[in-house]
Design brief:
Elements: H1 3-16, H2 19-28, H3 35-42, H4 46-58, E1 62-67, E2 70-75, H5 78-91
Antiparallel strand pairs: 1-2
């Protein structure tokens, strides 16, 4: 791996490593979700969820689509989905 690849991967992992962002990615692994849906699951404020979603979006990890008054978020990078699946297999019982 060259330095650019190492730096890119390090930035990705740093972004994902926050506990709330990691939980959001676990949730989005299953389906698209709105901010309200995510807030209920992670039990924090809409503003906090929005801030974490913005960070994930800026790194190209997630994307969103608007439908009426709702914004649906999903994981945009297939490599992140594969990484989340691997982590779940290695570290989670379910």
């Amino acid at each position: 791996m060259d330095d650019n690849q190492v730096n890119t991967i390090a930035a990705l992992l740093k972004t994902m490593s926050h506990p709330i962002r990691l939980k959001i990615l676990c949730l989005l692994q299953e389906k698209e979700m709105t901010v309200g849906d995510i807030r209920e699951e992670v039990q924090t404020t809409n503003a906090n969820v929005s801030q974490h979603l913005s960070i994930l979006r800026n790194q190209g990890i997630i994307s969103f689509r608007k439908e009426s008054n709702f914004i649906y978020n999903k994981i945009a990078d297939q490599r992140v989905l594969e990484l989340m699946t691997s982590m779940r297999k290695l570290y989670c019982n379910s």
